[in-house]
Amino acid sequence: MTQVIYPTQTCFDDALDLLVALCHQDRRRRRALRLVHAVVAPDGAPCAHAWVEDATQVFFQGLVDGAKHTFESSRAEYYTGITVRECTRYTLQQALLHNRRTGHYGPWQARYRALCLGGDPHAQ
Fold this sequence. Notes:
By secondary structure, this protein is α+β, with helices and mostly antiparallel strands.
């Protein structure tokens, strides 16, 4: 039986919080982990999305039976499954600087904000 993972609808918040948590769990991974903001098109229509990755793995949060869980996937499989069209990667330091400067979790680039559900939640 295939497990259905539903989106949290808070992926930008989830991804930055997850990046911070993963870096605290293992400080040696800090250099390898990146926060990713992207344009994806899993059903053909572009939308903005966020997750955490290293060179080979993706880490993300999703809902199963109404509860939020953290999942891991191979980067290649994840990128194919959600049809990644473009992405921007941030180190922990860069992400925290953008978060502090803007007062929100992202997306920080206008082209990604324009693709969020409900329009531009962080217009500046």
